[in-house]
Sequence to fold (198 residues):
Amino acid sequence: MKKLPAQEADTILPTGDTETRGDTMDLWLWYFWIYSFLGWLVELAFAAVSQSEEKRRRCLLLLPLCPVYGLGMLAALALPPMGWLGVTVLGGLAATAVEYACHWAGERFLGVRFWDYAQVPGNLRGRVCLPFTLAWGVLVWAAIEFVQPVVAALAASIPEAATYIFLLVFTGDLVCSLRFLRVTGDLKGMRAAVFSPD
Fold:
């Protein structure tokens, strides 16, 4: 089966070499952060187009990141090389599984629902739904086909020191956000504490 162009590039998988493993971890971290940021932009665009009352991004962190997108893309990138149909179907299913897990974890451990598809046809407990699974498939295919070569080049060019600095900022933000949500269970309150009203 023909590989997509992004999959023909050097495979980035851990090896026994410590230095290579470290470089690989840096790249995967940047893939996660970059796709989380792109997901935040997708959420803003979706809110604007759908004229949603919820104009804030539907994500956990205070940084402009939507981690479900980053994790979904990592799951898709971890799949073996395959053609466009396999990437679309399996990538969409992998991203949907991540979306379900993130929603379940938010409910179970933080007492918050980051989104609710209960009114969307083909939903599963309001956590995932068929229309968005199809959208995930198309987004994953487009990202691997067109975006990943650029993301890979960008991630490879980032100095190691920048990775450590951003990891520190990200971890601090993550810990504060989780603590706030665990104590209050108030997603809107967390966002209001950081952003001024519209």
User: Anything to note?
Assistant: Confidence is low (pLDDT under 50) at residues 5-22.
